[in-house]
Amino acid sequence: PLVFPQHSLFLAFSKFGLLYSVRAHRNAAVAGPGCYAVIKFYSAGDASRAQRTCNGQRLFQKSPLKVCVCTKQKGFQQQALALNSNKCQELANHYLGFNGWSSRIITLQNLSGFDSENEEVGRTSQKGSVKYLCAVEVTLPIHGVRTRGAALGEADVENSE
């Protein structure tokens, strides 16, 4: 199946930078045998470097590879999922260096129950909502930059003891 090309593509292209995803697909029946892949980098610069270096090369296959940079996602389903904390830290360490940044939580506050007067009609008493506000400060000491951000997280929960 496509596990081999997907793994080989990951190994070949991860040399240029952190990859968001690698997906290999079989060509359509009218296109003949083979496959195509969609490789997403976190950095547009890394993607451009990979394209310039790999286009027309035989990385792990017999025929030369055609590598294009796609700027429009037309025809592809775009999933906008938030990055988890570990992936954010991995990206920061990769691009800024292990000691090139720091973060601290300024506040973490439980906001559950503050909007009870705006409860949705029909919501049963067995279901509730948990809301937390988190404010964080990120510092890049080498550049003398400090910035703050805040987010509100919410999850539906069942009341249980």
TrEMBL record:
Q: Name one GO cellular component term.
A: nucleolus
Domain named RRM is located at 6-62
Q: Which UniProt keywords apply?
A: Signal
GO biological process assignments: DNA recombination; double-strand break repair
Q: Where is the DM1 domain?
A: 83-160
Q: Name one GO molecular function term.
A: RNA binding
Q: Where is the signal peptide?
A: 1-24
What InterPro entries is this protein classified in?
DSRM_RDM1 (IPR057652), Rad52_Rad59_Rad22_sf (IPR042525), RDM1 (IPR040224), RRM_dom (IPR000504)
What is the name listed in the Swiss-Prot or TrEMBL entry for this protein?
Answer: RDM1 protein
Organism this protein belongs to: Zapornia atra (Henderson crake)
Q: What is the lineage of its organism?
A: Eukaryota, Metazoa, Chordata, Craniata, Vertebrata
